[in-house]
Amino acid sequence: MKTVPMEYTSVCTNPGKVTKLSYGEKFVLLYTPVKPAEHILYLIHGGGGDQYSFFRPAFLNMVDHMIELGELEPLFIVSPCFYDPDEKDKTPGSSGVAVRKFCKELREQIIPLAEGYIGRSFARRERAISGFSMGGVTTWYAFLQALDLFYWYVPLSGDCWACGEKGGGVHPEETADELIAALKRQGSPDYRIHAITGSKDIAFPNLDGQIQAMLKHKDVFGETLRYEVLENGVHDYETIFRYLYHALPGLFQNQ
Ligand code: FER
């Protein structure tokens, strides 16, 4: 897995635009690329984070450069915040409660807001969801609750909490079963998962346990789940930017 080229962290000659879109007391940040875009990514921060966790120069400049150089097809990126505005408790327990109900907000408020602003609604094959840590947990919840909205799932160093906190590691087989049940319940539509973590990531045992259990179900996940582990990768945003540098060009590619 390549590292992000040093020059990609500097400001691009022709950068995309970041717009703040409000709903009630909350807001999302929307990245609009300089070229016309046919796809949209909903990108979810980790525990204790917010709309700005991903939307920092190191990430936005990287995306600008990738698009400018033709390494990445232009895409919109939406960065919401899964916490309530007055939430003070950002522990995994509290975050777990927030992300379990967050897909409802995505469905009912955030997607209509962002896509209404852009002026078109995207098809599920044109929509992806990704996130880091608790944002990865959110990504798995989207699979459980909103398969009709997204085709592409990119959980980064976060496991599925269908069977409780860090449930992918504590109850791997049961978690795989929950994912399969949710898939069937939602009519078994086609989808793609690209899960990535690092061997020294604190979430590694949880995500890895879950993925190994999922991979035993070859009939379900054999063709649809891709899993990569970066040797020595740790649990921080810099490493996650590298995963996205690696994974973003593969999104929206099998249509
Ligand atoms: C994990 C998923 C999420 C994990 C930790 C988290 C240790 C989040 C932690 C936090 O928000 O502090 O698998 O494993």
Task: Tell me about the largest β-sheet.
Answer: 8 strands, mixed
* Bound ions, cofactors and other small molecules, one mention each: 3-(4-hydroxy-3-methoxyphenyl)-2-propenoic acid
Contiguous low-pLDDT stretches (5 residues minimum) are none
Could you give the order of the helices and strands?
A: EEEHEHEHEHHEHHEH
Number of helices: 8
Q: In which order are the strands of the major sheet placed?
A: 1-2-4-3-5-6-7-8
**Strand segment count:** 8
Tertiary shape: globular
- What is the structural class? alpha/beta
Helix content percent band? 25-40%
The average pLDDT value, as a whole number, equals 97
Beta content comes to: 15-25%
Gyration radius (Cα, Å) is 17 Å
First and last CA, distance = 25 Å
Structural write-up:
The protein has helices at 57-68, 92-118, 134-145, 167-170, 172-185, 204-215, 218-221, 237-247, and strands at 17-23, 26-32, 40-44, 76-79, 127-132, 152-156, 192-198, 225-230. With 255 residues, the chain is of the alpha/beta class. An 8-stranded mixed sheet has the order 1-2-4-3-5-6-7-8, with helices on both faces. β1 (17-23) and β2 form a beta hairpin. The site of 3-(4-hydroxy-3-methoxyphenyl)-2-propenoic acid has 14 residues, from α2, α3 and α6. 3-(4-hydroxy-3-methoxyphenyl)-2-propenoic acid is lined by residues 46-47, 92, 95, 133-134, 137, 158-159, 166, 202-203, 206-207.
